[in-house]
Design brief:
GO molecular function: kinase activity; phosphotransferase activity, alcohol group as acceptor
CATH topology of one domain: Nucleotidyltransferase, domain 5
Number of helices: 19
CATH architecture of one domain: 2-Layer Sandwich
Keywords: Kinase, Transferase
Strand content: 15-25%
Structural class: alpha+beta
Radius of gyration: 23 Å
Protein name: Carbohydrate kinase
Shape: globular
Number of strands: 23
Family: Belongs to the FGGY kinase family.
Distance between the termini: 71 Å
Length: 502
Amino acid sequence: METQRLLLGIDVGTTHCKAALFAEDGGLLRQAKTNTPRYEEDGFEYFDPKRLSEGIVALIREAVTPAEARHVACVGVTSMAETGLLVDAASGQARSPLLPWFSPCAKAQSERMVGEGDPMERFAATGLRGSFKYGLAKLLWLKERAPDRLENAVWLSAADYAAYGLTGAMATDYTLAARTYAYRIDRKEWDRDWIRHFGLAPALFPEVYPSGMPIGGITKSIENVTGIPEGVPVAIAGHDHVAASVAIGVTRPGEVMDSIGTAETLLGVFDRRALVQEDWDSGLSFGLHPANGRLFWMGGLSASGGSVEWFRTALSDPALSYEKIIGLLDGTSPEPTGILYFPYLSGSGAPMPDPDAKAAFFGITSRHRQADLLKAVLEGTAYEMEAIRRSAARIAGTPIDRTVVTGGGVRNRHWLQIKANVSGSRIRLPDEPETALLGAALLAGIGCGIYANMEQALEVAAGRRNETIVEPQNDIHESYRAIYERVYMPLQQPLRQYSKII
């Protein structure tokens, strides 16, 4: 009897690094997790490259037994997006720490970078608005602090660096290259003129591969410590949200993935075309999706689950337990609370990006209690996702009426029902515990020929998956729709004007 081939997924996340072993049908066999190694210096947070590489090897050893290791057919690596570092082009030794996506260290350089080009022209090329998060801004920050570091160096994203540690090959994929502000998604190439404009060498950026295409094979030294045979192909599966969208089958127009965590992200796809003014006006960001001929749009709220965390600690003493949160929500009516919560604890994203936007409650009366305020927080985050969904539907040119949810927030059934009622659309909850890891493994499996194409990989994975459906309650949806259209959105501009003067 032929032994089933195994797939290994690795996910380098903001909080945790994970490795998971999957069967060929997508079934999770074993998983290992550790904290992503952070430290602080000069007032900024960094990730430690050496400890990261060592931790990934340890995770592989924990997730894969010696007997299983020889049956691993491919490895896929995904990660948080904009985090990256400089490595020596010859030796691969780190020349900088891993600079986190959330670090504001390059804010001044970002402002100068944005001012150097026409914003719409850059958006049409990159799919992005300028930000301190992106790799180009971080490189300018490094250049100002220690320009010699950039000599004969290469910029690698977190997944790129992890894959380099396993293969000795320096490369990246479309989805991570596109988060540098130096890669043209319209041409699938580095923008050499733009890079040179800042006095940087185009050689700073590695070769770019489609997501899931092997960049190299397991080295002998990695075989010696993990048991995975030398030469087993390793692929960069790219941006973790994009990999997750593949795992749960969000690869066609009309579908959207809602990833609910501390931050919340909506992601959908549409047929590839040139980006235009209407796309810019949407406030969304864009990139190349692994599904052939497709772009993805993405928008998010940086303080979604973060708003719940803020509520349970700042507005309760002692902090509310998650069991207490569910208990409070159990006692609420399914009707809207009548309170509006604007969830801008750390600014707002699409469709109206504004780093200065402030959070607010509106409409509180003496009859409202702690449970009402808690539910209002969930309603506010749902209104914000609805704004992104409607904006995306306009630019995608097709209704978005199918939402698949993933992430830690799915454990709160009240939140999912509120989302369904606000949007008026059906919510699908697949029983897939590790979507980014599975997406990385599936993309590697496609690139390595284990699956004939993406359609086959998705069919295989879906065949063993169950899902829960949350239906909207139509009468309650109409109440939420009226509040959203008549009050929540009209109050956006006054709130933002107030935020500018406080």
